Amino acid sequence: MKLYYAGIKTSMGTVWAAATDNGLVQVHAFGREESFMSQLKRRVKGEPIHDPSKFEELRLQLESWNDGKPTAFDLPFDLRGTEFQKKVWKAIHDIPYGRLSSYGRLAEAIGNPRAARAVGNAVGSNPCGIVIPCHRVIWSNGGLGGFRGGYDDESLDDKRRLLVKEGVLPRVEGFPEREVDLTGFFV
Fold this sequence. Notes:
Elements: E1 2-10, E2 13-20, E3 23-28, H1 33-43, E4 47-50, H2 56-66, H3 83-93, E5 101-102, H4 103-109, H5 116-124, E6 137-138, H6 153-165
Parallel strand pairs: 1-4, 5-6
Antiparallel strand pairs: 1-2, 2-3
Helix pairs in contact: 4-5
């Protein structure tokens, strides 16, 4: 199987992406090439081929998103995960630009209302950040929750940056989520 990858330059920095001939398998908005490639090799079998030409449509959609335009990222996917994870990732993908959902709401959306914790685990293992917008998933009480599987300051600042870009938060610094009723952004 051919596995293509490239670093896509954006105003946020380099976004790393990988795809097969069937669609995107991994997108990382934050991090270095080495960690991206390490995760990719664990996730997908195949020899990576550097080919930026395979990601022109993704680059255009990322530019549109970076310009503050509502973008749905309507690209094909070739996701690797359990059926449960794929259901969660599809539900996350369906959250509109500038809107939010919670782990519990996603559990309800996939028909498993008691699975909020399992949904949280699936959100944390999302392979296609920004494109499958897990930054739009927060706690039901309006708290930010985690990001990229963590609760550290750097991860939460990255989540805040993405929510600022989409007009949900007014700024990154401090704790702007405490000044805004984020539950008002729920779909």
